[in-house]
Specification:
The protein has about 190 residues and is α/β, with parallel strands linked by helices. It has six helices and six strands. It has helices at about 30-40, 65-75, 85-95, 115-125, 135-145, 155-190; strands spanning about 15-20, 45-50, 60, 80, 100, 130. Strands 3-2-1-4-5-6 form a six-stranded parallel beta sheet, with helices on both faces. The longest helix has about 35 residues, at about 155-190. The radius of gyration is 19 Å and the shape is elongated. It starts with 13 loop residues before the first strand and ends with a helix.
Length: about 190
């Protein structure tokens, strides 16, 4: 597919993109929520990238978007709800959008582990998005976003610099973490 074959946004409507990612585990609560939102908000054009989850019934759906297509669709989206994948959150941020993050929950069979929940909490703590823990919170999060100017659109260049700096700090911490772990392991052997 080319960017020309990307889904287009409806004229004169607010645009909401919901990204569930491509993990093989179903993320039905995100698609069901998107259908509920589309039903009760006919002034919104709701597009769901649903991956391996069943397509929505009311909102428009597309299984997968290539990176180029995602960039085009993100460019036209006014509001974005995304799963808690670090790569997707980064793509949303790089497009200058402030994501509402609904992480996949392994307790609900939506993923293999809790890494999305941990990353979403970290991203929210660092101001990289607003995290909601269940679909019931999504409506109030979108309403709180208000008009498009209040959605927290960001300067992607500044955010990339900040992310690189944070990553550099985290990488710099690895040797000290390894030393601490080795010293704890040595202490455990002497007992």
């Amino acid at each position: 597919m080319t960017p020309d074959s990307c889904p287009t946004w409806a004229e004169g409507k607010r645009t909401l993109l919901v990204i569930v990612g491509t993990d093989r585990h179903p993320f039905a609560r995100a698609c069901e929520w998107a259908d509920e939102w589309a039903s009760s908000n006919p002034d919104h054009d709701v597009l769901v990238q649903h991956g391996f989850t069943n397509a929505p019934h009311v909102a428009r759906g597309v299984e997968i978007l290539a990176p180029q297509q995602l960039g085009v669709v993100l460019g036209g989206a006014q509001l974005v709800v995304t799963h808690g994948g670090p790569g997707t959150i980064s793509a949303v941020r790089a497009a200058g959008k402030y994501p509402i993050i609904l992480p996949r929950d392994p307790e609900r069979g939506e993923h293999v582990d809790g890494h999305q929940m941990r990353f979403a909490a970290w991203a929210a703590e660092h101001g990289l998005g607003r995290v909601v823990w269940d679909a019931a919170q999504l409506g109030s999060a979108l309403e709180a976003a208000g008009d498009v100017s209040a959605t927290g659109n960001v300067d992607p260049t500044a955010q990339v610099r900040e992310s690189v700096t944070t990553l550099g700090i985290r990488i710099g911490e690895i040797p000290a973490m390894r030393r601490r772990r080795r010293s704890v392991l040595r202490l455990g052997r002497t007992r």
